[in-house]
Design goal:
The chain is of the alpha+beta class. It contains 13 helices and twelve strands. A hairpin with a 5-residue loop joins strand 7 and strand 8. The longest helix is centred in the first third of the chain and has 26 residues. The C terminus is likely disordered.
């Protein structure tokens, strides 16, 4: 290969720039755009040939690019390193840099799979540049759902129930192993039944030490009822301080609850997904079809900013659907980020405070069973503010119109914000608000 003097190239570029500048405006714009595409493709190919450290440094264009643009250029080159034909498409104008950026984003999220997916690339190539992000978003969601189904099928093959023995206590044990979705559904049903038994035992109206059984005992009794199909624990008695005995009868067994989220958006009105009851992700389609006939389908309606528009009726305790919405919004305890399964719904303004809090989704927050009594015992009030835009992390599922991240803090409660009667126990109630 002949050695070319860089000075000669720079002179030729200057002559080319002068010639294009002297053209009629419409012709000059056309030639300038073509040159930009050609040189963008050349830059991307050269960057792809460098190692990661040199690629990042060279992508900055000598410090004239912002960090964001530098990162985009680097990711474009990494994508071309997986599929060099993308640089040819860029040079010929079949795709633009925005479309290549969309492919690069999907490539990063899929472990380079997107860069070699011919259908994805063809769909982006034949669509408008503004639709590229939506196309890759749908591709990523479909890939995740397929992966979820594959994972479910694999775990379903390993399902088992093993009877055992605890040598320390001498008790018999029964261990269930299986897909996350099926175990979560069983766990949720046991927890719901145990919660009903808690109410039958006296609930929060009865001090914890006066309850006839512990939370773990209630969970065992609930599981026994569900498995054996009997109703030996349908009622329980409790005695108050005056010696009076109260008997409470609990409700019938609850059905499994499937939560469906609907985002009101002209471009995605048909994008309806079902989530696992424990908030761990989407339900595989085969599982949803099986649950469809035997489950309670609960729905949440959001606007494009992610705000809940409607969610069930108001009452003292949060409904299961409201609790599911809190999982979707808060992810876990807003103070310590603990997993949702250890959390409860907390009224920002206590329900029985002088100012009378309401059980609305925007007046509830997810807190764990350690932070919840701490808020009441220390007479603190939860408050939140929107994080600045640059502190709101990108969520691939929510897209560009996702709501701002909430920053939660506390302050001393005013007299009108202090509950008249504070909870005295941690009973494992995960769908109640205090």
């Amino acid at each position: 290969m002949a050695i070319i003097d860089h000075t000669d190239i720079e002179t030729a570029l200057q002559l080319l720039a002068t010639a294009v500048s002297d053209m009629a405006p419409s012709a000059g714009v056309r030639f300038a755009q073509k040159a930009q595409r050609e040189f963008a493709a050349i830059e991307t190919r050269h960057l792809a040939s460098l190692d990661e450290r040199d690629r990042r440094r060279a992508s900055s264009a000598g410090g004239t690019r912002s960090r964001k643009e530098t990162l985009k250029a680097s990711k474009r080159s990494e994508t071309v390193a997986h599929n060099s034909s993308l640089a040819d498409k860029l040079a010929k104008g079949h795709i633009g840099t925005e479309q290549l950026d969309a492919i690069a984003h999907a490539t990063e999220k899929s472990g380079a799979e997107a860069a070699s997916d011919s259908k994805l690339i063809s769909d982006i190539e034949s669509s408008k540049p503004d639709d590229a992000n939506k196309i890759t978003q749908r591709w990523l969601e479909q890939r995740e759902e397929n992966a979820a189904q594959s994972r479910y099928d694999r775990q379903n093959q390993q399902r088992k129930a093993v009877a055992g023995h605890d040598p320390i206590t001498g008790c018999a044990t029964l261990t269930l192993t299986g897909p996350q979705e099926r175990i979560a559904a069983m766990k949720r049903r046991v927890e719901q039944r145990a919660d009903e038994l808690y109410q039958a035992d006296g609930g929060r109206d009865l001090p914890h030490h006066e309850h006839p059984r512990t939370h773990h005992q209630r969970r065992f009794d609930a599981a026994e009822e569900i498995i054996l199909g009997n109703s030996t624990n349908m009622s329980a008695s409790s005695t108050n301080g005056n010696g009076d005995t109260k008997t409470r009868v609990s409700a019938p067994h609850p059905k499994a609850m499937i939560h469906v989220s609907l985002i009101v958006d002209d471009t995605a009105a048909s994008e309806i997904r079902a989530t696992c009851p424990d908030g761990s992700g989407y339900l595989p389609e085969s599982v949803l079809e099986r649950y469809d006939c035997e489950s309670v389908i609960a729905g949440t309606v959001y606007n494009e900013s992610g705000d809940v528009l409607w969610f069930g009726r108001q009452r003292r305790y949060a409904t299961p659907t409201q609790f599911a919405a809190l999982i979707a919004r808060d992810g876990g305890c807003v103070l310590c980020a603990r997993n949702p399964e250890f959390c409860e719904a907390h009224h920002l303004l206590p329900y029985n405070a002088p100012d009378k809090g309401e059980t609305n989704i925007d007046e509830l927050a997810l807190v764990c069973k350690s932070c919840h009594p701490w808020l009441h015992d220390t007479k603190r009030t939860l408050i939140w503010t929107n994080a600045p835009p640059d502190q709101t992390p990108t969520n691939d599922r929510a897209g560009p119109n996702q709501p701002p991240k909430r920053i939660w803090t506390t302050r001393p409660a005013t007299p009108n914000e202090i509950a008249a009667h504070q909870p005295t126990d941690q009973t494992g109630r995960t769908n109640k608000a205090a």
